[in-house]
Amino acid sequence: MTAKDVVASLRDGMTIGIGGWGPRRKPMALVREIMRSDLKDLTVVAYGGADVGMLCAAGKVRKLVFAFVSLDAIPLEPWFRKARESGELEVLEVDEGMFQWGLKAAAFQLPFLPTRVGLGTDLAELGGLKTVQSPYADGETLIAMPALKLDVALIHVNRSDWRGNVHLFGADVYYDEWFAKAADLAYVSCEELVDRMEDHYPDDAQLNVFERCFVTGVVHMPAGAHPSSMPPAYGWDMKAFKAYADAARDPGDWAAVADRFVGASEEAYLESIGGKEAVAALPLPIF
Amino acid sequence: MTDATLAELCIFACSEAFRNNGEIVATGVGPIPRVGAGLAKLTHSPELMMTDGEAYLVEQPVPLGPRKYDDRKASGYLPFSRFFDSAVWTGRRHAMVTPTQLDRFGQINLSYMGGTYDKPKTQMLGVRGFPGNTVYHANSFFFPAHSPRVFVPEVDMISGAGYNPAKRVPGGNYSGIDLRLIVTNLCVMDFGGKDNAIRVVSLHPGVTFDEVQAATGFPLERGPLTETPLPGAEALAIIASLDPHNVRATVLKDNPPAIREAA
């Protein structure tokens, strides 16, 4: 299917989980397609980077579930900051570990999973999180992290076949598996699309981090994570991130710069950044 | 006399936080804590585990700054995708970090300052993993500019658990809260005072307790108040090898020497 088909299946008010982590492995081509659509009032659930920043900047987000929003080398995501400081976002702020715990609760169709995380902080009070008591002899009081049930998950993977047999590699796959399992519908974009995985990469089956029953549809999108990183294919585009961050100060108005960071179409966007070849040449980040 | 800089003295002090920690993941976030953790591993505490900052465990700490992507030699694998399972929620980690604020209870903030949850005046990173880190494993802190804006009576948004009795829910298990050292450009502090109050343990050469107190937004206790030790030649050589591009020279304002010049 195409990115347009994916976005056409989404509705206003949906809860959308976005895979990846900060400036890494973000399904940015799918996010850009949402940016080109009329979708609104979304609840976005993400380990946030520029995906969250631009969706907030465009006014598409009603509620955000997050533990951080950051571009790493540019620690504070400027468009997200603007949206927060304007008071226009409803938020649920949770710890990074609680976040994946909430996805796991959703995946297992549980109302919540218990955790110590959040005790001793302001998270529970500010986010309206409740506690539960262990029914066993210890009687421990724990925070009940609610399930982060997703209507849709968007994930960018290294390769897939048309059935949704995905291969995820690179140094780290973060929590993409749990976004897929927490969602009613999960769409993956991929760097490489093959017809039948077993005919092409039979020896790489251990890279199948989640099974095809968790994949609703596949879109072929080489360079689809740009400007985030997609190891080992390419690193993040720090020049593009910097231009994007600078634009939050000057001119500071998303409508004036949306065309630069989204483009009228994915083809136009890719052309504006020098094509797939330029993306493929981006060096992997060194930590 | 020594040629050591104050940044190097701080690195040396940070490395002490990781002594006798056992076989746990030592995470230093930022140049000074990271080189400090590496120095600990290469000197007194080789049992420490450490990542390359991405996904692999390494036995040789990776140096700061530009190097070849594959220069690291992986001895193991600890990606984010299993960081909570393996390191954080099992308590097998000691992190040294730099939050925006820290208060008299050791509570930290990196979420927002001023305003409200719904409309913060200044939005920062978000709580990240600090609630989990602080309730499960050891934590230490490094601050490059000791000031009342950093050390506040009470933080604006409690993003990491400390020793505040008012933030205890009956039946909650707080036994994992384990705040260790605070290293700053002026001194080394710990939580060894009454009811885990923060106390000054050692002063950097030429610094007085009164100066530290004046730069802190709450009363401090007096610990032994020794002089923070200077790194020797071996430590300085290792520090240089872990920071070949001298990033450490950019962390403290004006990169002062470890021993203050007479006023």
Q: Within the CATH hierarchy, at the fold level, what is the topology of the largest domain in chain A?
A: Glutaconate Coenzyme A-transferase
| CATH topology-level fold name of chain B | Glutaconate Coenzyme A-transferase
* Total separate domains of chain A: 2
In DSSP terms, counting alpha (H) and pi (I) runs of 4 or more, how many helices of chain B?
Answer: 6
Structural class of chain B: alpha/beta
Assign the CATH superfamily of chain B.
Answer: Glutaconate Coenzyme A-transferase
Structural notes for this entry:
The complex is a heterodimer of chains A (287) and B (263). Chain A has 287 residues and is α/β, with parallel strands linked by helices. Chain A has twelve helices and eleven strands. Chain A has two domains: 3-93 and 151-279, Glutaconate Coenzyme A-transferase (3-Layer(aba) Sandwich), CATH 3.40.1080; 111-146, no CATH class. Helix content of chain A is 32%, strand content 22%. In chain A, strands 1, 2, 3, 4, 8, 9, 10 and 11 form an eight-stranded mixed β-sheet that branches. In chain A, helix 3 packs across helix 4 and helix 5 (96-107) packs across helix 7. The longest helix of chain A is centred in the middle third of the chain and has 12 residues, at 96-107. The model of chain A has no long low-confidence stretch (mean pLDDT 97). Chain B has 263 residues and is an alpha/beta fold. Chain B is 20% helix and 23% strand. The mean pLDDT of chain B is 96.
In short:
The complex is a heterodimer of chains A (287) and B (263). Chain A has helices at 3-8, 28-35, 50-57, 78-85, 96-107, 123-127, 176-182, 197-200, 238-249, 254-261, 266-272, 275-280, and strands at residues 15-18, 42-46, 61-66, 90-93, 112-115, 131-133, 141-146, 150-161, 166-167, 183-194, 217-220.
